[in-house]
Write a structure and sequence with these properties.
The complex is a heterodimer.
Chain A lengths: L3 E4 L2 E4 L5 E7 L5 E7 L5 E9 L2 E4 L6 E3 L9 E3 L8 E8 L4 E3 L3 E5 L1
Parallel strand pairs in A: 2-11
Antiparallel strand pairs in A: 1-3, 3-8, 4-5, 4-9, 5-6, 7-8, 9-10, 9-11
Chain B lengths: L3 E4 L2 E5 L4 E7 L6 E7 L6 E7 L4 E4 L2 E6 L4 E6 L8 E8 L9 E3 L3 E6 L1
Parallel strand pairs in B: 2-11
Antiparallel strand pairs in B: 1-3, 3-8, 4-5, 4-9, 6-7, 7-8, 9-10, 9-11
Classes of the chains: A mainly beta, B mainly beta.
């Protein structure tokens, strides 16, 4: 099992550009999450999904969108990137209790 | 919704000493409390967890205690080693929570083990 795989690992965006952060898991987990982690801070939930076709907002959803067309994939879309979205983004999945995290995507918006 | 506080924000200990990190939560419906370790530049990884029907759990040098009445739980690391240096996050989760059994994370504790 590869676990949770995120791509890309690093990305620099210009203000106003858009991009999609990819997340895939091969553990057949129903629950998937997107977090952002600002420097020296904890993890804030952006969006989550409890299964294919079902998504909902977390604590900090503004400026982001998600989709969950399959159990495996949970991409995060950034529209009109802003400097405030500079952060490290983690995708995670779980079945029951333990959450497994991807290796993160470090995004810089300049 | 759930709110998790964590103290201290930074902690330095001498190698071989013990380290204790404390968390409090607000939602009495929370029933699962994991601890994640995040090494510099790496992903968070689960190190130990405890359910609300248990008061204490140990795994080698680490242990977690839970006081449901006071709504707090703690991570204890004994005989600390340099490789224990990392940021530790506590979290609380409830099936009746707002975010699909999501974890609400504490802000983290940066532990430094000095040789």
């Amino acid at each position: 099992n590869a676990g949770v795989t995120q791509t890309p690992k690093f990305r620099i965006l210009k203000i106003g550009q858009s991009m999609t952060l990819q997340c895939a898991q091969d553990m057949n987990h129903n629950y998937m999450y997107w977090y952002r982690q600002d420097p020296g801070m904890g993890l804030k939930l952006i969006y989550y999904s409890v299964g294919a076709g079902i998504t909902d907002k977390g604590e900090v959803p503004n400026g982001y969108n998600v989709s969950r067309s399959t159990t495996e994939d949970f991409p995060l879309r950034l529209e009109l990137a802003a400097p405030s979205q500079t952060s490290v983004y983690f995708c995670a999945s779980k079945f029951d209790t333990e959450a497994f995290f991807g290796q993160g995507t470090r995004l810089t918006v300049v | 919704g759930e709110n998790v506080e964590q103290h201290p924000s930074t902690l330095s200990v001498q190698e071989g000493d013990s380290a204790v990190i404390k968390c409090t939560y607000s939602d009495s419906a929370s029933n699962y409390f994991p601890w994640y370790k995040q090494e510099l530049g790496k992903r968070p990884q689960l190190i130990i967890d405890i359910r609300s029907n248990v008061g204490e759990k140990k795994d080698q040098r680490i242990a977690v205690t839970l006081n449901k009445t006071a709504k707090h739980f703690s991570l204890h690391i004994t005989e600390t080693q340099p490789e224990d240096s990392a940021v530790y996050f506590c979290a609380a989760s409830s099936k009746s929570g707002n975010y699909g059994q999501n974890f609400v994370f504490g802000p983290g504790t940066r532990l430094s083990v000095l040789p």
